[in-house]
Amino acid sequence: MITRTPRLIAAAVRLAHRADPTALRQVAVAELAGGIAQAVGLVAVNQVLVHLLGSGGTSEKLAAALPAFAAVAFAALIVALMKSASTAGTGQLEPKVFRVATEQYLQRVARVELAAVEDEEFHKLLDSAQWGAESARRMIKFCTSVTASAISLIAAAGVLTVLHPALLPLLALMTLPSAWSSLTIARRRYLSFHTWVQHARAGRLLSTLLIDAQAAPEVRVHNIGAFLLRHFRTMAETGEQEQTRLARLAARTGLIASGWTGLASSATYATLGLLLWSGTMDLAVAGTAVIAIRTGSANLESLVVQLNYLYEESLFVADLERLCKEADARLIPETGKPLPANPSAIRFENVSFTYPGVAERPALDSVNVTIPSGRIIAIVGNNGSGKSTLAKLLCGLYVPDSGRITWDDVDAAEADRAQLFDRVAVVAQDFYRWPFTARINVAIGRPDAPHDEPLLDAAAEYAGADETISSLPRGWDTLLARGYKGGHQISGGQWQRIGIARARHRNARVLVVDEPTSALDAEAEQRVFDQIRRLAAEGQTVVLITHRLHSVRHTDEIYVMEQGRIIERGTFDELMRPQEGAFRRMYLTQSRQYHFEGEESVSLPGQPEQAEQGAR
Ligand SMILES: Nc1ncnc2c1ncn2[C@@H]1O[C@H](COP(=O)(O)OP(=O)(O)OP(=O)(O)O)[C@@H](O)[C@H]1O
């Protein structure tokens, strides 16, 4: 701890300097001046005692001690004023340091690769590092206290050394046991926190599920409340056991330390008595020595306690620093080759990809796909076959493990990622429902562009969200977050229209739509597919991922995926022609569900009317 402390204080000072240099200077000056005043006060106390315990009449002795008395009072006044100036400065610094430390990691975490966010180890670090910002805030107070105690201690130790050199080591001896005990307890607490951090997170998750508005209907209808509570209690009880274990250990360590402190104090006072008895020290000096020992040991005790707190907090700040370092290593690169503005095609060439930490088969396995500009490409396949993964790689959210994705001749892995993100718009299956107004929910597709009303209206109309917007109590300015004042809840399908409007508003070269109509009514669904077709006619490239196979009839090419591989590709007619194709099998299975009694059975290309009937 002793070797780390200067580094810790330096880190806290650097943070504080970034947050508010003026307040930092105020605290530093106040602490230094307060410490000096305290030393002067102690020397003045010695003078008072020398005069009072010297020879002569009481009134003479009092008169002689008067200037020293005045010095004690003046020093006390300065100490009080400086303490108050330091408290004001620290209070000003603390919230600013918290903000700077929080921004420091939030800024980075928002820019790391998606793979890092999903990485279990990175998340664990994120969990514990989040405490770091609060710890950095608290460190300011402890740093101030440590500095104050250290200066006071130096003053007391200086006075003691002048009085008698043997007293200083005895003072240190008195405080060492409590230093050892505090450090041991802090270290144990920190290690326990790290071992239990995931457990505590899971416990918090259970308790938030019980009050979560989205989970509320199921919690009631399926009577999940009791189940969640039971697990919450079990987890909390395990946590309590750990706390009890720590408390027992702390009590034992504290008791051992108190024993040693008692022995050291006895030795100190015995030495003082011996010095007095042998006549080596006179009474006035012994009186000052007692005061200096008491002040010094109080300062040393406080120094140790504050250092210990500082150390404990610094472990969390160190986690925060580790997180920032780790995030820096996993940041999305900010430079790269420029991407062609209008590529003639985007190609997946033998692309393989496995999610980090997943040992089983790859999510994409030697995938070859060509997406010509201005065409609609459909990706179909069973659940878990890799469609969404392919879309995420196309958007630049992951980088292939092998193979490459090219925009004409530029490898996307080497391209300027900001440009790549700029070129794509996504309606993901699990697109985010921002707890903001309807306006922001659409405009956030281009967060830096001005919120131009006609453009927003056009995007809403495109997605069929215009009716939803006009039916909202405050139109575009309705807050789409239930549970807040003025908040409003819209249906899943209405959200989906908002999501499509957002992607439309983004107006990117490539539009990736992942199951865009799953929550839409039949008419809205038809309208979305018509709009998508119109977009392609206007030159926009569309990648359509869907399970609604009738909607891919008019796409330019269909890729069929199975277990991360492309198993078929071709136009609708080409894929329906062979008797044993996977697409044909899926299509017929789906179309049979729409077959009603008395209707002719579904037929194949070459008999278009009946096939249409079946698909409908
Ligand atoms: N973030 C992730 N981390 C780890 N594995 C994932 C992740 N996302 C998907 N997978 C796995 O990758 C495989 C492909 O998933 P993907 O979401 O691409 O399938 P999909 O074809 O889009 O499925 P669906 O039709 O159900 O949407 C699955 O085995 C899935 O479990």
Automatic annotation (TrEMBL):
Give a GO molecular function annotation for the protein. ATP binding
Q: Does the keyword Oxidoreductase apply?
A: no
Task: Write the record's keywords in alphabetical order, separated by commas.
Answer: ATP-binding, Membrane, Nucleotide-binding, Transmembrane, Transmembrane helix
Describe the location of the ABC transporter domain by residue ranges: 346-588
Transmembrane parts of this sequence:
62-82, 139-160
Q: Where in the cell is it found?
A: Cell membrane
Q: Identify the InterPro entries for this entry.
A: AAA+_ATPase, ABC1_TM_dom, ABC1_TM_sf, ABC_transporter-like_ATP-bd, P-loop_NTPase, Type_1_exporter
Q: Topology with regard to the membrane? A: Multi-pass membrane protein
Domain ABC transmembrane type-1: start-end pairs: 146-312
Protein name in UniProt: ABC transporter ATP-binding protein/permease
Q: Tell me which species this is from.
A: Streptomyces albipurpureus
Taxonomically, what lineage is the organism?
Answer: Bacteria, Bacillati, Actinomycetota, Actinomycetes, Kitasatosporales
